[in-house]
Amino acid sequence: MTTSDSGSQSMTPAASGSAPFQWPSSAKATSGARGEALLAGIGNTPLLPLDALTRDLHHDLPTLELWGKAEWYNPGGSVKDRAAARIVFEARRAGKLTPGKILLDSTSGNTGIAYAMLGAALGFPVTLCVPENISPERKRILQAYGANIIYTDPAEGSDGALKIAHQYAERHPDLYFYADQYSNDANWRAHYETTANEIWQQTLGRITHFVAMLGTTGTFVGTTRRLKELNPTIRCISLQPDSAFHGIEGAKQGLLVGVSAAAAVVGSLQVVEHLKKDQRAIIVTILADSGEKYLSERFWNEE
Questions:
Q1: How is residue 195 annotated by DSSP?
Q2: Which domain range does residue 61 map to?
Q3: Residue 226 has pLDDT above 60, yes or no
Q4: Which terminus of the chain faces fewer neighbouring Cβ atoms within 10 Å, N or C?
Q5: Of 5, 186, 158, 200, nearest to 80 (Cα)?
Q6: Are 116 and 147 in contact (CB under 8 A)?
Q7: What Rg do the C-alpha atoms of the chain give, in angstroms?
Q8: Could you say which of 28, 69, 80, 293 is catalytic?
Q9: Residue 103 in this model has a pLDDT that exceeds 90
Q10: DSSP label at residue 257
Q11: Residue 183 domain-assigned (yes or no)
């Protein structure tokens, strides 16, 4: 596991967390706007204690706490609901996603599922450029939500899907709203305004370490920016996996978590290994999704 630490050594008083960004309420949904209640269900996910993974370490680290933010509690089943909803929210507010336009983006799974869910609920069409080798579960979910799927060369991975999405957007600018999750500031702002403030409030401002995987970087960048405003001494560590699967750590905790969530737990435990004896540590990591969308993957059979 490769880690990057953006921690600061300066010591300043912690600030008070502001109220998290609020999606339109369910009360507004009854006034005629389709699916707004779904937006209100995104965020405010629970922090789960990962005590089974740290109980043997309390002799040297008596104040150690490890928490996982369970993002599968979002209606679309992953942390990507936050960014997708904010991208859609901002695009509609700015008049970019107007009636008749198709939301277009590239995705390898969870963001696409979130887009498709929102499109079905809010009444706009969704076209997704997706590597053909994504799991069968993710394909079925996208199809169930009614998304138009353009499968791309699996050998080119996410970069290939991104290239195709760019081409469609350039050729048909009047047809598509190109969401461009990798470059859209609404991606990281979703976590700046929701994820970070939720973590701050749920830990009562006690968090000392934040650990997250890197994908589009939105989760890490947005959460880190806000947490550093609240307390510059919080250490924020980004992770890149060096193995395809770290599922055993999730199983030991009794949670069926997704690949990146399990890798985030592994990375958090590596952070624990570098703590000093008796160091106070309240570590929070992002459990991006559950393992249900990966059950057909062959790594379950690997030793």
A1: I
A2: 2-75+188-301
A3: yes
A4: C
A5: 186
A6: yes
A7: 19
A8: 80
A9: yes
A10: B
A11: no
